[in-house]
Amino acid sequence: MKKYDYFKRVLSFNILDGYVVFEIETLYKNRANLILYMDDNGILRLMFYRDGYNKSNKIVDFKPIHGRLDVQDRDNKIVVKNGDYCVLINKDPYNISFMHKGEFVLKEQIKDFDADDHFKIYPSGFVLDDNMCCHANFNITSDEHFYGMGEKYMGLDKREKNITCWQRDALSTSTEYAYKNIPFFISTNGYGFLLNSFARSNFDFGYSSGLSLNITLEEECMDYYVFLDEDYKKILDKYTLVSGKTPMIPKWAFGLWMSKCSYMSQDEVLSVAEKLRKY
Q: Among candidates 56, 13, 40, 21, which has minimal Cα distance to 238?
């Protein structure tokens, strides 16, 4: 049985040049560091890792620090603002929420219990097993839907789907296995999410519990971006600002694209090429 060491409370925080570092105590009295970057364009980056470990298998290293952070310590809450965007960190119990123009857009789920007050899905933190995974758990609203995750042989809406993000030879189109997984999705609640890691990950979009979006990563550092906006096109613009924009292919590349699963010989390839030119 997995042993979950989830976040319990914020011990302290430190405001640095363009970001905030929080020290967090876990269920088993371990220490974790959480780093928050956010700019005035609605791009946020959040990283957390155990004390003494900060290595990440990151895809990109974009640090959203444009604008000026306004950090306020209010009793049991820490409020971080930049422009129209705000992050609320509850100290005890630990919880984090993302806001845009005064409205809650995304928040962590810390109360996914069954009738016996046992967790169905544990709050964000670490899994203390041989692989030392980490996971982030967020609240799902009743009318929320999710789109993305790259090439997938299933419906567009990923709600109530459980998806492993890992490149592999699919060999068919009848399973979730795919060649081009992308750990990015858009929510109808007004945010995009990019998991910034090429390690194996799992996205549980309300499959195990209708209350939780649970993201598990097979490494010791959770690193993700949140893109806040009510306009899907603007979310994509912010995402490609971080990931890079795809250049237009040259004119000669437009036209017939053809492939098949395998060619058995060079003669077969040349024969196909000859027929393409002929017909």
A: 40
